[in-house]
Amino acid sequence: MSAAVELVAEDAGKACVLPVRAQPGARRAGLAGTWNGMLKLAVSAPPEDGRANAELQELVAELFRLKKHEVRLVAGEKARAKRFRLALALPLARTRLDALLAEHGDTP
After folding, report:
1. pLDDT in tens, 32-81
2. Of 92, 107, 100, residue with least CA distance to 39
3. Topology of domain 2-104, CATH
4. Is residue 57 classed as helix, strand or coil in its secondary structure?
5. Contacts of 72 (CB under 8 A, 6+ apart)
6. pTM higher than the cut 0.85
7. I need a labelling partner for 63 at 20 to 30 A (CA). Which of 12, 41, 83, 88 fits?
């Protein structure tokens, strides 16, 4: 349920922060649903030398239709719980998140 994923506005609404639960070393990369108020994302890269973080950044950019430089890891570099800053207004980010979860089978 997307309401459980708490997007937080930043920079006077010009950007937002997305909480992510990372699942490194997965067989298949992609959206894996939600987990405790976070968007759960699986990546095939192992959690070594920042490889999983780099793949997560690329995946978030792809899912939210952003360029890689418009997505930045702001917290959780060495943890499964991470926070990514998206250069995307909160209403548009919420709309895209709802659409992603609906495609995945989670009802927004």
Report:
1. 999 999 999 999 999 999 999 999 999 999 999 999 999 999 999 999 99
2. 100
3. Conserved Hypothetical Protein Mth637; Chain: A; (3.30.1200)
4. helix
5. 57, 84, 85
6. yes
7. 12
